[in-house]
Design brief:
heterodimer, A: 111 residues, mainly beta, seven-stranded mixed β-sheet, 0% helix, B: 109 residues, six-stranded mixed β-sheet, five-stranded antiparallel β-sheet, 57% strand
Chain lengths: 111, 109
């Protein structure tokens, strides 16, 4: 059973561009979560999704950030008009119920 | 919101030594997990332990939910144990983990 997969692993964007981060959960897991880790900090919850539904987006910035988990395909975290402060590691996790399993992360650098 | 404090913040060990890492949380929780973030940034699941004691090789963990703390024991440490150890809790059963401040461990040969 493959683990949680994220791509790309590294992403470089110029200020003002869009960033799309993808996450494929483990087989049989219907819950997906996104977390952000700023340099030298712990992880902070962003959003919790199930198929075609956003369950909790209380950690998402109000503007420029959106997430989806369509019926088919991976979950997508989309950041529009990126700024330098968006540079961070973005982790996706999936869960069958309670225990969460994390992917390797996408490291976003905004230049 | 819930506060999750870990101690010590930094720890340096000689290879072969034992250590205990602590995680205190300020409110009752439905879920507690321990993770190891290795020097390459990957998060490795160590334990899912909302209560009780578990062991996995040289690592073991104990959570005393009524007293709001959890302990991670590392025995016979190895250089590959280096990295940052996080505990994370789900306070409301809403499945969003709140991460602790982390313990940075360096094991030297």
């Amino acid at each position: 059973n493959a683990g949680v997969m994220q791509n790309p692993r590294h992403l470089v964007r110029r200020r003002g561009q869009e960033a799309r981060l993808r996450c494929s959960p483990m087989k049989g897991h219907s819950h997906v979560y996104w977390y952000r880790q700023l340099p030298e900090e712990g992880l902070k919850f962003m959003v919790y999704l199930q198929k075609e539904n956003i369950i909790d987006e209380s950690g998402m910035p109000k503007e420029r950030f959106s997430a989806e988990f369509p019926k088919e395909g991976p979950s997508i975290l989309r950041i529009q008009q990126v700024v330098r402060g968006d540079s961070a590691a973005y982790f996706c996790a999936s869960s069958p119920a309670s225990e969460q399993y994390f992917g390797p992360g996408t490291r976003l650098t905004v230049t | 919101g819930i506060q999750v404090e870990q101690s010590p913040p930094d720890l340096i060990l000689q290879e072969g030594a034992n250590s205990t890492l602590r995680c205190n949380f300020s409110d009752s929780v439905n879920n507690l997990q321990w993770f190891h973030q290795n020097p390459w940034g990957q998060l490795i699941n160590l334990f899912y332990i909302p209560s009780g004691t578990k062991q996995n090789g040289r690592l073991s963990a104990t959570t005393v939910a009524t007293e709001r703390y959890s302990l991670l024991y590392i025995s016979s440490s190895q250089t590959t144990d280096s990295g940052v150890y996080f505990c994370a809790v789900d306070p409301g059963g809403f499945q969003k983990l709140v991460f602790g401040t982390g313990t940075r461990l360096l094991v030297s040969p």
